[in-house]
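Posted in: Structural Biology > Protein-Ligand Complexes

Title: Requesting predicted complex, FE2/S2 (inorganic) cluster in pocket

I'd be grateful if someone could produce the 3D structure tokens for the following input. Sequence and ligand are given below.
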Amino acid sequence: MPERRYRIVVCRGPDCGDRRDSASVHAALTRAVAEAGLGAACELDWQSCFGRCSQGPNVLVREVVAAPIRRGLADLPPRLGGGPRAATALYNRVSPVHAAEIVASHIGRGAVVRHLIEPLVVAPPAAPPPRPAEPTAPEVREDVKVP
Ligand code: FES
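-- Reply #1 --
Done. Output follows.
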């Protein structure tokens, strides 16, 4: 059985980072990993944006299988030689108080913390622009005689 390893990726994009202080989430996750003694099982990283800005701060926890896959391929999808993704989740609206729970449950036991996952919000398609008015027939003036 290959060793279970995880990558924790915190968004630092403009919404998650600048407006919602994802740096404090990253710091709390770093502390929680150290306190749980799980530093060998995971690594923390940053991502510029997950495209779920309105639901941030967003944190992706992804399982990567380090062995026997060659180093550098573990992050690829399985069809390209990467490892299986047994427990991957994108957590939404994460705050520092969620860090210990994510680390203990997801990293410690491989169990996704479902209550921290929101459904994808898809905006309805924008209404099409109004159509230009149909050209009207030229006015026929009966007082003008055409030669
Ligand atoms: S800024 Fe975090 S998902 Fe876009």
